[in-house]
Specification:
about 450 residues, globular, lipid-binding, 4 domains, cytoplasm, ten-stranded antiparallel sheet, alpha+beta, 20 strands
């Protein structure tokens, strides 16, 4: 922005899930704030950084950026505001304007697990829910099963497998999200989006649901996500030859890692710093296969009910190259840290450093949501993705709320220190301090996903 920065209205980059989502001006955010206040009342909406009459000094610009970042995080993490149509449509509109993609009809290609391509005609301005429904109707998947599936942004790897980037969220336009990455390796894929395999029964009742589930199971076995020994492999093969899809799935359900999402190899600080690990999410746990420095492989699991809270932090090294250097490069270092109840009175932080930290967080959130829905006696079928048409717009119910990953704002001026720890210098603070206090001025108090499933844990669970 050079030295003329004060002549143009300040624009702030909003990163959602570690990716540049949109650029907005202070006045646009102020407009959003006023609309939220009108709808939800001043006592619900967090305070907004005040207007200034005079041009801001660089220090004030930075201060305002930090205040706006806190504001956006607070809104996103409030279940009412963060899930509101007002907030989500603001982000969708800003995303479309920033990427300068006009509203028009386009054909979007969505992949199935078996590599099959489904082409749907949609509008560039269609939100995730609309695109999911378009895919379902093209496949003849009945309405009451749509809620069992989701669209995921993936990156195709060399061997034809997929690396999961994130579940597409309600505040984005899938067509814009995938085209703005300008990279053909990024694709959108349809996959089941629940964890409890007893829901498979609902899905298998219908021909299309059965086919989708079967294709996904076959693909997970082929990619080595589900562990199979020789004898099981022989049985699966003979069921495949007989085209006994239900029996095939029934057998797969008994195998290790069935229904888990497997992540790319990454690094963890458990049991010691710098261990290489393969993390899988499923069955209400994160499973670790850790390679110790001694090259020994150890396996262990962290139950989601024993995680007190977790957070995603990202540090962005300022790029030396021209700004806007190609997206998808590993400029952002992402970490997922969770606080785990190791034994009756010992909590310990475990950190995973992975470009897929957001997706891990989304998995944790959705496992907790599913546990809570079950506890309250709800089901996915009763409210497919909690659809309720409100003024003709689709709304999700709170039970199926997507993960609250806080949008992160970038600085508008280039004179910041090179490593911006976006979640306010977490490293320099002893973590002990955080776990007992949630006061507003405490470090990163609002970066946390508190885990409500944790509260129901009893001694017998330990």
């Amino acid at each position: 922005l050079g030295s003329d920065w004060h002549l143009s209205p300040q624009a702030y980059n909003i990163h959602v899930n570690g990716v540049l989502h949109c650029r907005v001006r202070y006045s646009q955010l102020l407009g959003l704030h006023e609309q939220l206040r009108k709808e939800y009342g001043a006592n619900v909406v967090p305070a907004f950084p005040p207007k200034k009459i005079f041009t801001l000094t660089p220090a004030e610009v930075e201060q305002r950026r930090e205040q706006l970042e806190k504001y956006m995080q607070a809104v996103r993490q409030d279940p009412t505001l963060g899930g509101s149509e007002t907030f989500n449509s603001f982000l969708r509109k800003a995303q479309q304007e920033t990427q300068q993609i006009p509203t028009e009809e386009v054909v979007l290609e969505v992949l199935l697990s078996n590599g099959q391509k489904v082409k749907v005609t949609i509008l560039t301005s269609d939100q995730t829910e609309d695109v999911l429904e378009a895919v379902a109707s093209k496949l003849d998947l009945p309405d009451d099963l749509v809620g069992y599936f989701s669209l995921f942004l993936v990156r195709e790897t060399k061997d034809g497998a997929f690396s999961f980037v994130r579940k597409l969220q309600e505040f984005e336009l899938p067509y814009v999200s995938v085209t703005s990455l300008h990279n053909s390796e990024f694709r959108i894929i349809l996959r089941k989006s629940y964890w409890d395999s007893s829901y498979d029964d609902d899905v298998m009742e219908h021909r299309v649901g059965l086919n989708l589930l079967y294709a996904q199971t076959v693909s997970d076995i082929e990619h080595g996500w589900i562990l199979v020994n020789k004898e099981q492999h022989r049985q699966l093969k003979s069921l495949q030859e007989k085209v006994s899809k239900k029996e095939f799935i029934r057998l797969a359900q008994t195998l290790k890692y069935y229904g888990y999402l497997k992540f790319d190899p990454c690094v963890t600080d458990f049991p010691e710093k710098g261990c290489h690990v393969v993390v899988s999410a499923g069955n209400n746990e994160l499973n670790f296969q850790v390679r110790l420095p001694s090259d020994q492989i150890k396996e262990g699991s962290f139950k989601v009910t024993r995680m007190r809270c977790w957070r995603v932090t990202s540090s962005v090294p300022m790029s030396n190259g021209p700004s806007g250097s190609s997206p998808g490069k590993s400029e952002v270092k992402l970490e997922l840290a969770f606080e785990y109840l190791m034994s009756k009175d010992r909590l310990q932080w475990v950190t995973i450093t992975s470009p897929q930290a957001i997706m891990l967080s989304i998995c944790l959130q959705s496992m907790v949501d599913e546990l809570m829905v079950k506890k309250s006696g709800g089901s996915i079928r009763a409210s497919p993705a909690g659809r309720r048409r409100v003024n003709g717009a689709l709304r999700r119910s709170d039970s199926q709320q997507a993960v609250k990953s806080p949008p992160l704002l970038d600085s508008p001026d280039a004179s910041r220190e090179p490593m911006a720890k976006l979640s306010s210098k977490l490293t320099s603070v002893s973590l002990r301090g955080i776990s007992h206090s949630s006061s507003a001025n405490d470090v990163g108090a609002n970066d946390f996903h508190g885990n409500y499933a944790f509260e129901g844990i009893g001694d017998e669970d330990l």
